[in-house]
Structure formats: C-alpha cells, structure tokens
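Lab channel / #folding
Pinned by the channel admin:
"Please post every new chain as: sequence first, then the structure tokens as a reply. Keep commentary short and put observations after the output so the thread stays searchable."

First post following the new format, from NK:
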Amino acid sequence: MEDVLFAECCADVYKLPYDKECPVVCMDESPKQLIEEKAFSKIKSGQDARVDYEYIRHGMVNIFMANELLTGNRFVGITEHKTKKDWARFIRRIAYEKYPKAKKIKLVMDNYATHAISSFYEVFPPEEARILREKFEFHYTPKHGSWLNMAEIELHVLNKQCLNRHIPTVEKIVAEVDSWQKQRNIKNVKINWQFTNKDARIKLKSLYPSILD
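Reply from TO:
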C-alpha cells in the first residue's frame, strides 16, 4: 500500500506534479460477457423498455483500462482473452502509442498473475522485452487493496455509462467503448483522489504491526 502511495521523492505518487517525461498511469482490467437478446418486446411511446429473461451467451471479452490521473486521459483496449500475452501487448501499446517520448512510466496495477515482467519475454524478443522493462516503474496494489487503483474507478464509470446493458458482439463493444473513451477524454474528466499515505497510517492503523519497547 505504501509503495503505491509513497514515491522515492518523498511525495505521494498520486500527488506528484505533472511530468510528461514521467507520467503516473493506473491500469486495471475487467471481464464483460457478450449477451444477445433472444426475444424483443414492442415498446409503446412513453413506456419503459422491457428486457426478456431469455438471452444467448456469446462468450467473454476482457477490458483493459489505463488512465493518467493528472491529464484526465484514458486508454482502453478490448481483447478476446485474458492472458499474459494480452497484458504484455496492451502494456506495449501504452508505451509506444500513448507515451512514446516518456523516459519512465510509473504504472500502478494489481498483483494479478499475468501482470509479470516475464510476460514481456514470452511475447517479444529479449531486446524489446528489456526495453519495455526499463520503460516502466511498477507499483503494485496489495492483496485486497485494488481500491487503491484509480483505474478501477474508471472501469466502474465505463460499466455504468457505457456497458450497463446486453451487448452481443466484440465489434459492438469496441465501437461503444471507443466512443465513450473519446468523449470522456475530450472533457478531460479527472479523479479527485484524496486518500494519502498519511491518511493510510491513521485510518488503517490496525493493519500495521505493533512495535513494543
């Protein structure tokens, strides 16, 4: 927890001043089930929409979310699987598509099994894997502490504003998410994060070991 909230320059990671050469980015992922409506009810003017209880499952997709807290910019990727290779390729996109000129990217994410440096070497040649490794500075949230990741907040907003209904195809989800992402980036919507390292030591005091004289 303190690694996420505390930086080597003695300031909370989430409170560091903006630095385009060293951006702070949060990353998270979430599954979404593809569902097709099996039956449709005719809707009269002024009548609430009705959804039949029968539907057809078309598998799952995985939604990757990356957001830079100080600029109000987010970057979403949709994959059909949730593997080390999918994660590595998404991280590569963050590095080369979003921050090609950054010297170091501080990346906050959870300790999920696929979020490992070894994933780079399973997907890319050793030389490129090494470059990617040097491009990032990883900050992992603790177990049961995913709430410390601001990308999780962005995923909740995405699900509430864009994916809160049945969507049958990958293509449809990609189109919907792309539109949502563009509009939210245009508005530069930011998260007002208030929880700091100092707060953690007070509010979560019971989690720290007791020191006896």
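NK: Residues 2-36+54-207 form a domain with the Nucleotidyltransferase; domain 5 fold (CATH 3.30.420.10).
TO: also worth noting, The chain has a mean pLDDT of 84.
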